[in-house]
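Our preliminary data section would be incomplete without showing what the modeling component actually yields. Below, a chain of 242 amino acids is followed by its predicted structure, encoded as tokens that our downstream tools consume directly.
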Amino acid sequence: MEMQRIDLPALGEDTDRTYRLGIMGGTFDPIHNGHLVCAECAFDALDLDMVVFMPAGSPAFKQGKQVSTGEDRYAMTLLATSDNPHFVATRFEVDRPGVTYTADTLQLLRDLYPDNVEFFFITGADAIADVVAWRNADRVAALAHLVGATRPGYDLGRAESAIESSPYDFDVTYLEVPALSISSSYLRERVREGKSLRYLTPDPVTGYIHKHQLYGARASRYGASNDRYGIRSGEGHKDGQA
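Predicted structure:
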């Protein structure tokens, strides 16, 4: 594999310092403001140099489920992150053949970056509870710090118990992120119902969803009269929008 992919941030050139790279993995089907706020909070709280958004190629936990194409998910991620100077979207997993596993991804990144670049893998606290059962969990523990993003009031008991009883030496930081009440499945449902995505995901992502008619969107109605706000003609303010 090449020493440095063009769409990954170039870090590690100063051998006298340590760099901290945030890795925001996920299906991103679609990406939403919860993902973006989570990454921004991690950037600030953990003093990261960059956060790379990595849409999953063929995620192991989604096998047998309907998932949008990698091209669509990458395009939406690129649109959502393009205006933030410390966010980068990468095709790293999308272009890889076969089922993608976190341990393999982290190992490939480790092979690309020098030792003075530390990895911070950002995921949900619910995933932290299951990490001990991931494929090659010992390699995940050895290759990256884990960042478990939580909603306010989330009970960390299950995650903390799983990590404490694990035979592996996981380094976990928990980070409370208010916007995590948003979910991709909720956005997909709103699109199917003809409801607005405004303030849930960046407008360019909404435009892409309708242009490419993802999740049952009707491109012909997007931007026309009241439908641009997610209100179908004749329905008034049915879904609570002013």
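Residues 33-45 form the longest helix (13 residues). The chain has two domains: 19-181, 184-229. Preliminary results of this kind motivate Aim 1 of the renewal.
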